[in-house]
Amino acid sequence: MRHVISVLVQDHPRVLNRITSLFARRGFNLESLAVGTTHVPGLSRISLVVSGDDRTLEQVEKQLNRLIEVLKVTDHSEPHVERELALVKVHVGGLEERLAIKDIQEAFRARVVDVAKESLILELTGDSNKINSFVEALRPFGLLEVMRTGAVAMSRGERVLKVREKREEAV
Amino acid sequence: MKGAEALLKAMEQEGVEVIFGHPGGAIMPTYDALYDSPIRHILVRHEQGGVHAATAYARASGKVGVVMATSGPGALNLVTGLADAYMDSTPVVAITGNVPRSLIGTDAFQEADVTGVTMPITKHNYLVQDVNDLPRVIKEAFYIARSGRPGPVLVDVPKDVQLAEFTGSFDVKLDLPGYKPTLRGHPRQIERALEALEKAERPVLMVGGGAQDAHAEILAFAEKTGIPVITTLMGLGAFPGTHPLWLGMPGMHGTVAANRAIYHADVILAVGLRFDDRVTGKVSRFAPHAHTIIHVDVDPAEIGKIVRTQVPIVGDARLVMRELLRGAKPLRLATWWRELEEWRTRHPLTYRPRPHLQSQEVIRAFYEATGGNAIVTTGVGQHQMFAAQFFRVSRPRSFLTSGGLGTMGVGLPFAIGAQVARPGELVIDFDGDGSFQMTLQELATVVKYKLPVKVVVLNNGFLGMVRQWQDLFHAKRYSEVYLADSNPDFARLAEAYGIRGVRVERKEDLKKGVDAVLETDGPVVAEFKVYQEEGVFPMIPSGASVEEMITEDPRQEVGA
């Protein structure tokens, strides 16, 4: 099963390396990884997409928690917002195709961010399914480049991923 | 004050008394500062020897072991030892030099990405970029190494940082917001554990290496409840090996009684162990009748990693055992003990007597001659298992072996570390001819520091454990395991180092040989030429279950 996991880390050098090497050596399947800073200086947040059964996921969480620089790990099983950004450069043959692509763009509420004689760059945010569909819709026109950031996620409502909660008295 | 002096001062503050190490270009400023430092240094002949010695020092003393090496090749020679310490949860701090910051990443002379290389085999590591960070980094490194689940921490210090002027403070506070080990077991889980034990008809207590410091509580708990106790290879010594409640070691070369007890147990209390595959065998057939497995471990990631756990208790073994002891009641286990006794008396650890000298009898002779009062170290292989089987360790931190990584060659450097940690005690390294030859240059260290270690080489002329597997699983195709045609004369080799050498080849000279070793004041290397084709039994083949146990005599009833 697909899981989206958020990890709050100290943004020390090599912390990303520690996380990816953990996945590699423990044989966990990492589908995507997105990293960015937070509003708190010194803290970064990583979104991971991982697939596996419950036991694997339990190990993923526990092994991540063992890393000294990891402050908090959350598996987004609760209602959450999930977004991914994609840039798609698509081939445009002529006016007819341009109009067809415009229809798709509007249907997905994507934006055109670059226009050239024979190509367009479209920008889209949404959950991964939406982006998959968008890419598939554009495929017939000729995909030149597709760039996706990987999913980022945040819990809805009051739940907040914050520091000093990492090890609640266990189980 | 230079960075190098600050580094040593910060270590002094952590109570470091001794460092094992080997100098080189990139760590020279620190070695220069060491010249004026009260910290003692033990010069080893290979960095691997240093890290193993630091590991054994840590295990024998309960303190943090420290090893120091230069950049690149020096640091990389620590890799095996760090991995060994990591697998066996040993607190070690490794200090490595690195090339100056301006050269990092340029493939400079003796440069290697040591923090990158050691990431998967250390609990944590640091590359110090600012000289004023040294006190904080050292404080954190020692704290991380010794607290929670202990493990190795590496601190890589570029040469120019060692040379830079230190203007910082030694009054630093720990600030590790992501690191807060849970030490106290959850009261509700402890209650559940006690409830399960009270109702148990066939309980067992399994004790691992993480419970060495809980030995007093474990002994009291066992005596109060009457529960049978099993100690893993790493747990040997955490419960007296002479105690009537002790069933022996579980797993691949464990006792019939211990393995059958686990197989038939309804409740298992496992403390400070991680269900290594050498203990469980085939996991799906491990403890098939246990409806409740209580797992006490300070590392939450170990709980549920291999076996399903009904009562998980995250916490320090000693604190949790103290709580369990508080609520423990005598259990009614007469029926269970009748069964256990029968297995124990029908299948004691034994071996088939042969006309040749045998490893098992050598170890047994040393056990009897010393009354078990020794710190035992081993290499890895058949001799290791024979030592675990026939030398009954009764004190904690007194059986030092490579459990998780199975590192051949640890025996001699372990003996060095143990002897430095506990100078007044008798330290015996039971080694194999294969294992010993992986690190025997450390005999020079033994000489240099006049360490009275006793090296007992059980020379069977083979890589015996590999040969045993070839016997059993590869149709006796002895591929590249024969050593006897090229082994040195170990006694003369010792003499070349200025160490007393003893050689025993015949059964009738066994006692004389043992006495010669034990009567020698200083170090000894004693070679015992033992029967070449011996096997370690009982044995549960890798990935098999207790039901497939091979005992020495195939006519004996085996299985559950």
UniProtKB/TrEMBL annotation, chain A:
GO cellular component assignments: cytosol
Transferase among keywords: yes
Enzyme class at the top of the EC tree: transferase
PROSITE patterns recorded: ACT
Listed GO biological process terms: isoleucine biosynthetic process; L-valine biosynthetic process
Domain ACT: from-to ranges: 4-78
Pfam family, one: ALS_ss_C
CDD domains named among the record's database cross-references: ACT_AHAS
Name the record gives this protein: Acetolactate synthase small subunit
Species this protein is from: Thermus filiformis
TrEMBL record, chain B:
Domain Thiamine pyrophosphate enzyme TPP-binding: 379-527
CDD domains found in the cross-reference section: TPP_AHAS (cd02015), TPP_PYR_POX_like (cd07035)
EC numbers on record: 2.2.1.6
Pathway recorded for this protein: Amino-acid biosynthesis; L-valine biosynthesis; L-valine from pyruvate: step 1/4; Amino-acid biosynthesis; L-isoleucine biosynthesis; L-isoleucine from 2-oxobutanoate: step 1/4
Reactions catalysed, as given in the entry: 2 pyruvate + H(+) = (2S)-2-acetolactate + CO2
InterPro entries (alphabetical): Acetolactate_synth_lsu, AHAS_TPP, DHS-like_NAD/FAD-binding_dom, THDP-binding, Thiamin_PyroP_enz_cen_dom, Thiamin_PyroP_enz_TPP-bd_dom, TPP-bd_CS, TPP_enz
GO cellular component: acetolactate synthase complex
Family to which this protein belongs: Belongs to the TPP enzyme family.
Residue stretches making up the Thiamine pyrophosphate enzyme central domain: 190-324
Cofactor: Mg(2+); thiamine diphosphate
One term of GO molecular function: acetolactate synthase activity
The keyword Cell wall biogenesis/degradation is annotated on this UniProt entry: no
Pfam families with a match to the protein in the record: TPP_enzyme_C (PF02775), TPP_enzyme_M (PF00205), TPP_enzyme_N (PF02776)
Domain Thiamine pyrophosphate enzyme N-terminal TPP-binding, first and last residues per copy: 1-114
PANTHER family: ACETOLACTATE SYNTHASE CATALYTIC SUBUNIT, MITOCHONDRIAL, THIAMINE PYROPHOSPHATE ENZYMES
Domain of life: Bacteria
Keywords: Amino-acid biosynthesis, Branched-chain amino acid biosynthesis, FAD, Flavoprotein, Magnesium, Metal-binding, Thiamine pyrophosphate, Transferase
Co-factor binding comment: Binds 1 Mg(2+) ion per subunit. Binds 1 thiamine pyrophosphate per subunit.
Name of the protein in question: Acetolactate synthase
GO biological process: isoleucine biosynthetic process; L-valine biosynthetic process
Biological source species: Thermus filiformis
